[in-house]
Amino acid sequence: MAPITEVEGRRLPLSNLEKVLYPATGFTKAEVLHYYATVAEVLLPHLRDRAVSFLRYPDGPGGQVFFTKNVPPGTPDWVTTAEVPRSEGPSRMVLVQDLPSLMWAANLVTEFHTHQWLVQNPGEADRIVFDLDPGPPATIVHCCEVALWLRDRLAADGIEAYAKTSGSKGLHLLAAVRGASPERVSDYAKGLAVEAEKAMPRLVLHRMTRSLRPGKVFVDWSQNAARKTTAAPYTLRARAEPLVSAPVTWEEVEECRSPDGLSFTAPDLGPRLTDYGDLLAPLLDPDHAGTLP
Questions:
Q1: CA 89 to each of CA 84, 118, 123, 220: distance values in angstroms, whole numbers, following the listed order
Q2: Which residues form the DNA ligase D polymerase domain (predicted)?
Q3: What is the dihedral of CA 52, 55, 60, 61, to 10 degrees?
Q4: Within a 13 Å sphere around the CA of 166, how many CA atoms are in the beta-carbon half?
């Protein structure tokens, strides 16, 4: 029988705590749960009031990996859920609103992915995101070059951008926005991706065509569509090591010179939070939201 722990008055069964989920480092499920408890204070504000889809890997990244968007069977009745619009009709998804629901979800072994809108107002985006994905031999070093161009271009429109690693090989840019539909934000993001390609044609690609990807940075603007989700800040990723989608400073982006220069695993995040706090905290402040031109 799985051991039972109590989190803020909620009883949680935690299973297979000794299972090694990341064989490359021996990182166990117990350590996954410990990681999420450690970063809960900064992670939860970025999940709260956002429908969450889970990328689950209960046997580690080398086992079965699958997306769960609808409320999973067996979800406790105290976990908040909400009906969200979908093209095929409304569906019910999980909201991770507090520490007990975070630890319940972490016990399923998940990456956390969220939309760029809040469930209270799915017709208005509150974030814009760019996913910078390098096609080998391009690396995160090249992503950083593109990120700096996009940062300055967004700033010219009065929008302040922040960066985080994807937790894989790329980089994410995020900014808070207001007063625009997901469709409008998506169109604006595509326009900037096209501009970036014109400005850096040997480096940037705005189309998903895989045959064009080698040696270039694909600026994925499409994740701003209402139905799309992006890996949340601080989520673990299903990779060989317990890599994290970690916020980074612009100084770190500017100084990145190595393909491994911006790579952070779960044990790195405690010290980083001590040093920096939540580098993405401004995204949560309405006063920092920009307006699309």
A1: 9, 18, 15, 26
A2: 28-279
A3: -140
A4: 22
Residue 232 near residue 127, CB atoms below 8 Å: no
| Residue 264 structure tokens | 């952070």
Pairing relation of β-strands 171-180 and 81-84?
Answer: unpaired
Q: Are 262 and 268 in contact (CB under 8 A)?
A: no
Alpha helices in the chain (DSSP H): 29-47, 99-107, 140-156, 182-199, 250-254, 266-276
**Residue 234 DSSP class:** T
Question: Can you tell me the distance from the alpha carbon of 200 to that of 194, in angstroms, rounded to the nearest whole number?
Answer: 10
- Report d(CA 145, CA 130) in Å as an integer: 14
Cα gap 107→104, rounded to integer Å: 5
Three-class secondary structure of residue 195 per DSSP: helix
pLDDT tens-digit readout, 159-215: 999 999 999 999 999 999 999 999 999 999 999 999 999 999 999 999 987 888 899
Report the DSSP beta bridge partners of residue 172.
131, 164
The confidence score (pLDDT) of residue 87 equals 67
| pLDDT tens readout for residues 2-31 | 778 899 999 999 999 999 999 999 999 999
Number of Cβ within 10 Å of residue 38's Cβ equals 16
pLDDT single digits (tens) 201-213: 999 999 987 888 8
Quick check: 221 and 192 in contact, CB under 8 A?
yes
- Distance between CA atoms of 111 and 125, rounded to whole angstroms? 22
